[in-house]
Structure formats: C-alpha cells, structure tokens
Amino acid sequence: MSLNGLNFYSYLSRIRLLKTYSSKIMLVAFLGTHVPLITLLLFFVISTAQDLQTALKILGIALVATLIGTFATLLALHKLLAPVVLTSKSLNRYLTEREIPNLPVSFDDEAGSLMADTVTTVRKLDELIHYMANYDGLSGLPNRDLFLEKLNFTLHELSIKEETLSFPIFSLEATHLKQIRSNFGIHMGDLYVRALVQKLENILGPETVLARTGDGELSFFPLSSSSQVLEFDSEHWAEKIQKTISSPLTVIDQQISSEIQIGISVFPYDGKSSDQLLWKSETALSQAKLSGNSKIQTYSSEWKERMKEKYLLEKDLKLAISKKQLFLQYQPRIEVQSGKKISAEALLRWNHPEYGIISPTIFVPIAEESGFIAEMGEWVFSKAMEDLGAWKKKGNPPIRISVNLSAKQLEDPNISKKILQVIEKNQLSVEDLELEITESSLITNMQSALEILGELHSWGISLALDDFGTGYSSLSYLSKIPLKTLKVDQSFVRKILTDPNSLAISKTIVALGKSLGLRITAEGVETEGQLQKIKDLGCDEAQGFLFSRPISLEELEKFVQV
Ligand code: C2E
Ligand code: CA
Ligand code: CA
Predict the structure, then answer these.
(1) Which residue, of 51, 176, 450, 482, has the fewest CB within 10 Å?
(2) Catalytic site includes residue 282
(3) Whole-model pTM?
(4) CB of 404 closer than 6 A to ligand 1?
C-alpha cells in the first residue's frame, strides 16, 4: 500500500515509546520548539556569563521556564488532539458494541468535519446494515427474520395486556413466478413481484404487517390492535385478496398474471410462537398447492391425515402398472353439426384393491409429483394405440383417439420418437390420433416443449389444448403452438345457460379459436340446452355425459354402431 505522505508518521510509529498519536505530536512539538530555544540559551550563557554561579542561575531559571512552557504546550496540544482521539474511541466502540458515535457536529475545521463525517457515515452504514439484514432488496418489504420479530413483538404485547384475541397469519404465493421468469425473463419476474407487492400493500393498508418470506411468497398479519380480521372471517378476507391479486398486472405494457394461493394459520389455536404460526400458514399453503383446486387453505390437523393417505396411495401407485390395476375408458365425442361419432378421449382409471376405482384427478397429480407419470403416460399411450390397432383390425368404423399428455412427459426429449415408434408398431397412421396438452404443461419449460410439439406437428400429429380458459390463458404463446383444436373447459360449458360470464368467456374462446383457424371442442356437455348453445356459438365437437360417460372399448364399439 502506498504511504501517501505517511512516511514520517510511519517512521515514528516504529519507536516503541511513541505508541499513541498524541505522544508523536508532542515529541515533535517539544523538539521543534525547545531544541532551538535551549541551544540559543546555552550559547548565550556560555558566551556572556562572567562567572559560573551567574551562568548556573540563568540556566536554572531558563530551564524552569522552559519546563513550564513545555508542560503548557503539551497540555494544550493534548486538548487540541481530543477530536481525533474521541473519534477513534467512538469508532472502536461502534465496532465492538455497535454503539452509534455521539460526537459534536458543529465545528467546521478539519477536526470538526472529521467528527461530523464520522457520525453521518456510521449512521448511514448502520442503517444500511440494518436494512440489508432485515429487508428484502427486491420488494423493499421486511424479510422473514423481521417478520418473525414483528410477529413475536405482537404476541408479546398481547400476552402483556392479557388479551384473549385470536388472529390469522396468512402466507400467499404466486405459484407461477418461475414460469413468468422463464417466459418473460428474470427482470420481468422481479417487476411482477414489485407490482404484486404494491397491489397487496394497497389492499392491506398500513395496519397490516407484510413481508417477503420466500421467493414468490408473501406473508402478512393484521395488527391486533387495529383492523380485527378475526379468525372466523379470515377465509372470506383471504378470498377477496386472492381474487383481486390473481387478475393480470400490467408490467411494462405486458399483462402478467399468476395463480395465487393462500395458506392460513390462526393464533392461538395453531401455535403460540411466531415460528409455529408462520410454519403452519406455510404448511397450509403447500396443502392448497398440492390439492390443486383449493386456492385458500386453513391449517388443520385433518390435513395431516390426508397427507398420510396420500403417502400410502403413492406407494400403491408405484405398483399399479405391474399389478395390472390400471385400465382405460373412452369417452366418445360427436361432431356437433352432423351428430356423427367421430372421436373419443382415452381416460385413465386405477382399480385399487382396497379403495376401488380411484379418479385420475386424485392419482395423476401424485404420479406427476413423484415422477412416475412418465412411465404411466407411456403405458396409457401404448394401451390406447394397441386398442385402436385392434379396433381397426376388426373393421370398426374409423375413429380418432385422443390421449392426454402430462406436463412431465413434455420434459422428456425422446417423447416424440417414442410416440412415433408406438404408432408404427401398431400399424396406425398419424391421423388416427390426437394429443391433449394443458396450458400449464407448456409453462414450465416452454422452449423444449415447443420443440417437441413442433416435431409432433411436423409428423402430422394433431394437438389439442385442454381445459382452455382455466389456467394461464396467455395469448402470446397460443399462436406459437401448432394447435389443431381448442377445448373449452367444462366449467364454462356447465354454466353456459345460467351464468353470463361463462357464456361470454365461451363466446370469446370460440371467436379466438376460429380466428386462429382452430377446431373447437366443448367439454362437459350434459344437457340438450347446453348442446344447442354451443352449436349456436359454432363449436365443432362436443363431449359430455349427454352423449356418454367414459366407457370401455367394447361399449364404445356398440356406441358407435347405433
Ligand atoms: P380431462 O382431460 O379434462 O378429462 C375430462 C374429464 O371430464 C374426465 O374426467 C371426464 O370423465 C369428465 N367429464 C366428461 N364429460 C363430463 C360431463 O358431461 N360432466 C362432468 N361432470 N364431467 C365430465 P376424468 O376421467 O375423471 O379425468 C379427469 C382428469 O384426469 C382429466 O381431465 C385429465 O386431466 C386427467 N387424466 C385422465 N386420464 C389421463 C391420462 O391418461 N393421462 C394424464 N396425464 N391425465 C389424465
Ligand atoms: Ca383431456
Ligand atoms: Ca378437459
């Protein structure tokens, strides 16, 4: 390191007796003022004194005067050095005890500004350290540690006041944050979080403690003394919040939305410490995410039982293929204008030895989570194609079979080759089948999914987008997928005659699909009235209990013949 004019200081520092800064200054001051003075005095006395006695007398007086002068100079210097010494001591105290320096700030020379600047710098530094340790840089909200601290403080205050109040703790997650980042970029993901926080802050107001407790996770609780969101209306409150912030947010002229799920725990029933309460609201949040269809979940011990059940099911499911407990049913579809039975959807079933037939809505998500959906999906596809091969060999009328592909299957880079091999093995043509994918399956790894779908499309395999309107519904990627069919989700069809919103959404989906040159299938048609309505709207195909429930291959043969 360059000494930048510190050579002399550095030289003096090597002298053991001059440890302190003041001793160095004083030595210099002493030598600088007294050596010339004493030399002068000696010279004067030796050259002018007539006798030794007078010389010694003069020398003695001069020496006493010099000593007094020295003492006074050193004392004054010592006092003048006080700002430096004080600053050094307070800095040291900040380093060891985090005590903010309390130095005078009104002097305006160099020593004064040393003290004033030290105070300002340390204060700012301390604020920064505090901020970095307690706040989240992206959202500006308190972080997890500070959230727990504030919750602790509130609980402590309640216990002091001996209040018997109960209040909820919410944990909320934007479950599509990862997908938003992979679709729109990391920066847009960050901006989305900020926009979400801002919206939430507006809804919650100042009487709520809000913090960023995870990547896409925000937690909050109402301050007990103020807006008393009591335990019994917490779900209602959460529902309102969930609805409001699920709607798309404008992030640099892009409309971005994510599914929002909320977990709730309640003080004091779910715990009396901040750790327990946050942990439980987060557990409830995972419950909401796992269950798939609930957006809001309150922590309850009942859930633990269900988790146990789920674990057991998972173990059984691993053996389901080898134990031949899986089978397929087919649900026919008709062409709306002609009434012809032209296609059918293959739907997976599990015949559990203990529980009987289990719905795919229960076991498909378990299989997806534990990773064996790939194997199961391949089994479904092979079985469906085998059935179709046998169907053709028997000389049955032509039928197109659609098979559902799970998101996880689209992560396998060899999936398209495997599909082609199965088609060839059963001597089928690509026109005989259709693959159904959902919007969510595209979101996780958009690029590779698009490559796979592009390949399948180039071989002539038709693709249908299932459950359209329920998920992400981003128009930007709709045009990127080589689709042939759009399936209007059954939740809209079910309410098409009774709910103006469902009708409006169905109309929009049909118009959108038509403008992109797609065929439209309506799912879940249960009544003649619904059929008439979707016919009027211009849907091409219909599927639902009105025509048939999912049935076996043999029943399907009979169904198409009548
Ligand atoms: P999905 O692909 O939307 O399948 C349509 C579901 O709606 C089927 O339920 C069908 O039985 C039901 N459905 C059809 N018409 C009506 C109707 O008129 N009214 C009512 N209320 N429901 C109707 P299912 O068979 O329980 O399948 C549920 C979901 O499980 C499927 O939804 C699909 O997402 C998944 N799934 C089924 N089989 C497979 C499969 O082989 N692989 C994958 N990955 N997922 C599958
Ligand atoms: Ca489907
Ligand atoms: Ca569907």
Answers:
(1) 51
(2) no
(3) 0.56
(4) yes
